[in-house]
Amino acid sequence: MIISEQDLKPEISKRAEVESERARRPAELQDDLPPAYGDHDGSAPVPTATTPRDILAQHGAKPTNYLTLVERDSAIRGTYMIDPHLHIPTHLLPPLAPGQTEEERNNLYLHTRDGTVDVTIWLAGPAANRDAKPPLADKRTTIRVSSDDGPVTVRVNAVDYIDPFLLDVFTRDGRVTVLIPRSFHGPLHLKARDGGHALSDGVLGNSTSLGTAEGTVRYFVGDFSSASEPRCEGDELRLESRDGKIRVRYVDEIDTATSTKGGFFSRMFS
Question: Using 50, 70 and 90 to split pLDDT, how confident is the model at 55?
């Protein structure tokens, strides 16, 4: 049987299609594979180190200092960024209270006569503001938050290494909840006339009980051997509720320890 060239054309064409299909498969399979470790999209953002200034910028507002907010019959909520090294001309600030001096001016003062206070505070260290003036000698950052009728919740976050701070919280009617940064090192003064107090497991584990006197329970968070010099003022909490419980925990700590149980000293002095 003689096969002509004309008869072979369909077979040749079919074989060419098969070979072409085989040639395409490796490329298609390669496209389905994940990229090599060295491959990357040039348009993808490259991670960079986060600086204290970046952290503050993420909140969309500039830091301030010596901020005073007084409400009569409304709640106070929000985020406040305080840079204690930020210089603000005195004539731009609210008038001082009678008998108060500029040295005693609070870096942040929040008060409402009737309402809830629920705020987050970011404290900036010197590295967060390159244009800041040198800090005053032995000057702590002072924060006072209060409500005549309502619960108070304050969360304190540290941006970089911050100066020692004093946080004074008071309410006549309601619970007090305070979250502190891990860098906190200093005394706690807790006064709850009706409700007791509770420290989270994390805070309690770093605290030394100093007993109770005149209705105020005292602890020291951290190594108190460094507090032997009375002139060196470190961090300090002064918390008081006339009718409500006081709770303290770390700002990055899960709330289960505080809400479900207290440590030995928490139960002992409640």
Answer: low
Half-sphere exposure in the Cβ direction for 121 (13 Å, CA): 31
Number of other residues whose CB lies within 10 A of the CB of residue 185: 18
The CB density around residue 75, as the number of other CB atoms within 10 Å, is 16
Instruction: Report the C-alpha gap between 204 and 218 in whole angstroms.
Output: 12
pLDDT tier at 36, thresholds 50, 70, 90: very low
User: What is the reported pTM?
Assistant: 0.73
pLDDT band with cut points at 50, 70 and 90 for residue 59: low
Give the largest CA-CA distance in the chain: 123
- Candidates 200, 198, 205, 201; CA nearest to 269 is 198
What span, in angstroms and rounded, lies between the C-alpha atoms of 226 and 24?
74
Phi, psi of 258 (to 5 degrees): -75, -40
Q: What region, left, alpha or beta, does residue 165 occupy, with left being phi > 0 and alpha being psi -120 to 50 degrees?
A: beta
